[in-house]
Amino acid sequence: MPPVSALDRRAILRLIATGAATLLASCGRPKEDIHPLANQPEGTLPGTVRRYATALPLAGYGRGVTGLVVDERPIKLEGLAAHPASLGSTDPFIEAAILDLYDPQRLRAPFGPTGPSNWSALAALFREQLAPTRGRGVAVLTGRVTSPTMLAQLAAARTALPEMRHVSWEPFDDDAPLAAARAAFGRPLLARPRLQDADVVLLLDADPLGPGPEQIAHARNWSDRRRKAPMHRLYSIEASPSLSGSMADRRQPAGPRDLAAACHVLAAALGGGSGPLPTLPPELERLVRDAARDLKAAHGRALVIAGERQPEAVHAFAAWANGVLAAPQDWIAPVSGDVSPHCGGLAALADDMHAGRIGALVVLDANPVYAAAPALGFKQAMARVPLTIAASRFGDETGAASQWRVPLSHFLEDWHDWRAPDGTASIAQPLVHPFFDTRTPAAILDLMIDPAARPGSFDAVRAQWTGLDDAAWRTAVASGVVPDSAAPLERVGTAGLVLPPIPPQTLTIDLRPSSQLYDGRFSTNAWAQECPDPITKEAWGSSARMHAGDMSRLGLKEGSLIRIDRGGSAILPVRAVSGQALGTVTLVTGYGREGTGQIADGLGANAWALGGNGTPRIAAQEGGSSVATTQPVFALEGELEKLFPVLAPAEAMPSVTPKPSLLPNPPARGNAPPQYAMAIDTDLCIGCNACVIACQAENNVPVIGPDEMAVGRDMHWLRVDRYVSEGTAGFQPVPCMHCEKAPCEPVCPVEASVHDSQGLNLQVYNRCVGTRTCEANCPYKVRRFNFLDYAERSVWGDAPHESVTAQRNPDVTVRARGVMEKCTYCVQRIEAANHAAAPGETPAPVVTACAAACPTQAIRFGTLDSPDIAGARKDPRHYRLLEELGTEPRTSYLARRRNPGDTPA
Amino acid sequence: MTVLALATFPHESAYLRGRHEMVTHEYRLVGEWLPYGSEALGPGPGAHGIRAAAIVSGVLGAVGLFALTVWSMAFAYPFNSGGRPLFSWPAYIPAAVEFGAFTAAVGGLIWFFREGRLTRLHDAAFEFAEVARASQDRFVLAVACDGGEDANTVLAILANAGADHTRLVTP
Amino acid sequence: MKPHARQGGQRWILPSIQTLGDVTETVAAPLMDVRAKRRWWLAFIAALVLTAVGAVAIGFSLAYGPGLWGNNTAVVWGFPIANYVWWIGIGNAGTLISSLLLLTRQKWRASINRFAEGMTLIAVSIAGIFPILHLGRPMYFYWLAPYPNTMQLWPQWRSALVWDFWAILSYLLFSAIFFYVGLVPDLATLRDRPGRRGWRRLYGVAAMGWQGTPEQWRAQERLHRTLAAIAVPLVCSVHSIVGLDFAASLMPGWTESIFPPYFVVGALFSGFAMVVLIALTIRRTMGLEGMIVPDHFDAMARIILAASIVMGASYAAEWFSAWWGGEAADRRVVVFELTGAYWPFYWAMLLGNVAAPQLFWIRRLRTSPAALIGVSIAVLVGMWLERILIIANTLSRGYVPSFWRLYAPTLVDFLILAGTVGAFLLLFLIFARLLPVVSMHEVRKLLKERAQ
User: By three-state DSSP, how is residue B3 classified?
Assistant: First the structure.
């Protein structure tokens, strides 16, 4: 981690204001301390990267990030090593968040019932309408709130408006685990599994490695354990392939009925429960029995995790099982402060709204009209509320249903604080002056309390942390975490055995967070939309995932349109997914948006509309439409299995004798510059796509949009292939191989593809005439061609999109139309290290954007003699892709391992 | 006074007869114009000129381009292209061969112009209307003879040989 | 049409052509001096419209980029490269026919070589557009040429595309010289014919003072023969190099040593099909029945038949070597060719290139205009399909299954292809009005041989 400089608030704001003012003078509202760059702030150099610690929230939880700022523009977000929810790595959401800052679709000013408005009009409204009510009939709806400042503001608001109601609601809530803990231990607690200490893990439709606020930490902990011997073993029972299920050593698909039944069998095997056991499909039965045996054998190092969308009883069962197994798992009190059930809170609010008992509804950064259960009829309920105000960053469904739509700042534009899932607080400093007339949710609460309140997020946050003196404050801000602020671990008693009731075997709908869009909060993000789904590789849309057997039973083909009814309805194409449980239909959330702008509107169907209860109805619709995918084939058979070798725990890759070559060997590297190489451990890659978006952000990779994606012209320099080889699923990130005997180079007629002395395969954009011969001859197909001036074309429609260009990395060429481009091993970072090194001195180690992002550190980059690379190349699992072609790639892989136990998988 | 006897023949056989008569009578052939190349006239002088010119210029072109290739790849701007040797001679041959074929054609063409005395758009021969017939359908023969009786003899011989048109041209 | 029973030189000219003057009249009369016929104008306008459509499509492609075509990141090449290979194949035939038949003293070439060479020039010129057009940045195509520049950069001579650049350039210029050398005496004929002064002047300048003296004839014939001797290996090498664009790679289905000869035969094959079509057309429309006779078609049909057998053997060799070689990637490509997404096109290609020409085993069909037209079109379509399938099959089934993507051309692709067909017609129509489509001096010579 590079040092994070400690600057005081004024200095920071000055720098930020300078950049914002000069670069975005037209859209900011500079008021004070504006300097032209000619009067350079001391200690800054144009074009140099400065790093600031800050934080970003996901579902209310803060995750530390490092903001890379060049010429006062934040251009890239990386992980923050000191932060427990980042550990120095990122996920796709952190990587994509920087684009939101510059997104032309952002809301820029308050919009009232009669048209464009301003904050003082809203303040006047609050003064007239809220102040006299003492809060009666006033409701504030937020997401999960962990921010100490925000919690204090809410408390202050309740003081000013005593009868005001605050409802916390997250679409992906913790209601079930909290309720289970309340029943088991008498108080609401959240389990924090320590994957790093678990030898055997059983996932009950849980996806700790999948999208969510804790993905990075879980992935890091899991990978730490997986690196160690003896090999751990991951069992997964789930409805639809998830990232965790893909990485499992053994996995069986199961719908809710089989999962509940599996709990019964497992309970009996672990010594609990009595009576007749329900029947299970034989493969599932075998897996449950083997898992039970392994869990018992690994007492104290065995863990059962229930999926967050599983019913309360499954969580209760997991709590019991973990007690029996003395599982490596901690319990903490929820850090969000408010532990009332999210679902119930929202339902009660909706009831009151329908009944006309709510006079004013303020929605702060939540989107109930889109994501609330259809039974609540939230949109209709809002129509019954005399005053509705929705604050959001982008236009959304709730905003469209509100009288007032007010703009929120991007997280990087204002001061915030958040707590990580483990309770660690971070004070998030802004990296840039607000571009538009926007405020933070806390400032809007401020306005409700005191309509005369001045905007400004700093004072509120600073006031919250009066316990920190100035020095401690500066350290906390600069380091990104408040020391020793993690929640204390709770001691719990033993939970009683709860056996989940076994539901009937019916067709069920399984809603999951999208790995790119989460619950919909990244729907407007073009990078997120363009990022292929890890499992289906679908981009710019999502199909319903079904078992091929279910599809043929319903007479559906790949891409057939279906209409699903459960509460609401959704019309979308279907896709057969291997590994899907029979009788389940999986939909990911985040699609089917309305009124959000050019990016998300009209893509896919809203899965939340199926958030009702009961059995869904599925009907085939006329026609079909397939969602663009980047990968047509997942299952490898025969010779193709060589592409993704899977090894037993002690097995080694067969040694490959190099084929004879007519080409002379390269001269010995005597005094040669450092030779760079990359090693990717496919046994650790969880397919999260953080690297894909990190590469996009770092390397100015353009967004091409759904139509171009459908033609097959994706521009991602790094793709993550998903394969199922020898019955084992896994992911294989494929950047440029930087072959020493590169097939692309001798076929280029104009020397645009050449090799440098550091072993990099370079693409000289200026020289490229665009014959595309290099890509035609590339066995790995890692080159990307700019078919239509993607850098200048806008996927944002008519909205002026110049602001997006401010995100671009000034050290990376923006490629023109008709030019081939590809992964450069982040040559700009390599060259920066070379420039920084004194003559004759070895340059500092370089980390590529993908390697920096990787939460499991599966991607390692360095020189050939660095311990990481040299070690990987000596590893018995080491292999190179298509080695038999003699291309001698610098990017090489470590083989995926399987550890199915002593019974066949 | 020397005059020119011009005769046109409708067939190659007649023309060859007329020509043979003139040669036997030791008349000087001033000019011959044919509608196609007749093998009966024999190989003529300078049989290898064009071929030699084509070969020489072809070899020069090929070697020249090969030399440029080697110089530019191995000396002027050497770089690592997929680990291939700087002097990847087999890969440098095709372009050189193709270019050599072209320069051979150019060399041959130039020699053809020289040998065929072409590029003379204005020539004394074009003064005679008969010459124009040579490009259509007639064999044309021009013989130098003395004026008067001798000329008439010549015309008679030519007419006898099969000329369909004869005339005398007085300079 | 019935083939003539007479042998030797007599076979190749019908009795309707009696004198040297008949030859000149028949060939030269329909040229610029007389008003073009109505049907010529109709064809001209149709070709012009088609060309204009293609030009507009090319204009859009240049303005918006190659993204208007169906190419994608896996199938990076598409119609432009297929069109290029197809046209250059057609273009190879003219010079090859002319030179090979000249060297082997096939007298019957006299009446077909001129328009075949004209076809070559036009086809190669059209083909030459595509390598430039297909570029991402066509304005920099000249970077493939070695020229002094401030960056001191040179072309990358190991690339088959650079070889190709030299091959096309050399071949185009060489063919122009070859064509011109054969044309000079006929230009003199046109110069000396009565007619409009302006045109005669132009022909005169082009004829460079040709008189028809024995020295000139000897020089012309020597050069013609020398060029023919160079042309045969040149033509073979040109299309071999086009084959190397694919074969000098490591993609499955491309890296096959059979590619160069197979491309040469394919070129000859499609070229003869085009020559047959043109011969049938000009024979009827330009009154050349006396010079382009049924025996010509019989001979060309035999060559097409022979070439189709070679093509069939090449396909079989491709399948066999994929199977026998044991490379899984090669086998996948062959299986994909035969059964994959493009199978109807592959089987249509086999039908056109291998099955249809087998009709020419029947003597009667070798001179039947309907059969000749049908088979020639089948061959031309089949060869075009072969070109696009070579690209699409291999690039759609590369080494990594995660990047198996299919190719679907766009309207713009088709319009550009149609435009080149229009341009070919247009240029040929102009050629047929400006220059003698049959080599008059060579037919005159043939006439003499018939008389003997």
Answer: strand
